[in-house]
Amino acid sequence: AQSVAQPEDQVNVAEGNPLTVKCTYSVSGNPYLFWYVQYPNRGLQFLLKYITGDNLVKGSYGFEAEFNKSQTSFHLKKPSALVSDSALYFCAVRDWVRDDKIIFGKGTRLHILP
Amino acid sequence: NAGVTQTPKFQVLKTGQSMTLQCAQDMNHEYMSWYRQDPGMGLRLIHYSVGAGITDQGEVPNGYNVSRSTTEDFPLRLLSAAPSQTSVYFCASRNRGLGANAEAFFGQGTRLTVV
C-alpha cells in the first residue's frame, strides 16, 4: 500500500532564508509525486509534480522539489522564503502502476518569520 | 471555468440526521474522490470512483456512501451523522491513466459540524 510521511508538523524559517519541507514515500511500483499548498479556509492548490525524467522539478511561486529514488524522498525547497509562503503543505503519492488512489501525508505547517 | 464545485460550503447536522454533500466537475475527468481533513491527520481518502458506475473504498469509508451515475457528479452521503464525522470534506477529480495531467484538482471544501 502507498504511504507518505512528512516528519515535521511545523517548520519555521526566517524571511529570505532557504526553506525545505521534507517528504518520504512508499509505493509498490513507480511513483507519481505531488506537492500541494493550502491557505487558511481554502482548498488545496497544486504546486508541482514528479512524473519521470529530471529529478529536480520546478513549480509555482518559485518552489522546486528533488526526487531521490534511493532515499524515497521528495523534499520541497525554495531558495528564498517569503512571508506569503506561510501555509500548510501536503506531499502526496500515486502509484502509476496501479493508477488509482492519491494518498496524502499529514501536512507540514510552514511559518515564515518576518 | 468552474473546475470542481462543492455544495454546501458549511453545514450543521444533529446526530442521526442524514445529508448529501454534492460534488460536480466540468473537466470531463474520469476519476473523482472524497477526502476528509482533520487536524493532525492530513487528508484521508473516503471513497473514490474511476468512472461512471464504478466506486471503491478508500482509507476511512465507514459511515459514508457514494454513487457515480454520471461523469460529472460524485455525491457523498452520510446516512446517520455522528460527531466523529465533524470535519472538512474535499472533493477532487483528475484524469485517469499515465501522462502529464496526473494531478488532482480540488473543490473549496465543505465544513461539516455534527452536534
The beta-strand count of chain A equals 12
Shape designation of chain A: globular
Helix fraction of chain B, binned, reads: under 10%
Low-confidence stretches of chain A: none
Radius of gyration of chain A equals 14 Å
Major sheet description of chain A: 6 strands, mixed
As a percent range, the share of strand residues of chain B is: over 45%
So what's the oligomer here?
heterodimer
Provide the gyration radius of chain B in Å.
14 Å
Question: What is the chain-wise order of helices and strands of chain A?
Answer: EEEEEEEEEEEE
Number of helical elements of chain A: 0
SSE class of chain B: mainly beta
Average pLDDT reading of chain A: 92
What does this 3D model show about the protein?
- The complex is a heterodimer of chains A (114) and B (115).
- With 114 residues, chain A is mainly β.
- Helix content of chain A is 0%, strand content 54%.
- Chain A is built from no helices and 12 strands.
- In chain A, strands 2, 5, 6, 10, 11 and 12 form a 6-stranded mixed beta sheet that branches. Chain A has a 4-stranded antiparallel beta sheet with strand order 3-9-8-7, with no helix packed on it. Chain A has a two-stranded antiparallel ribbon with strand order 1-4.
- Chain A is globular and about 45 Å long.
- The termini of chain A are far apart.
- The relative contact order of chain A is 0.34.
- The mean pLDDT of chain A is 92.
- Chain B has strands at 4-7, 10-13, 19-25, 31-38, 42-51, 54-57, 64-66, 76-78, 87-94, 105-106, 110-114.
- In chain B, 36% of the residues are buried.
- In chain B, the strands form 2 sheets. In chain B, strands 2, 4, 5, 6, 9, 10 and 11 form a 7-stranded mixed beta sheet that branches. A 4-stranded antiparallel beta sheet of chain B has the order 1-3-8-7, with no helix packed on it.
- Chain B is mainly β and 115 residues long.
- Helices cover 0% and strands 50% of the residues of chain B.
- In chain B, a hairpin with a 2-residue loop joins β5 and β6.
- The interface between A and B is medium-sized, with 25 and 29 residues.
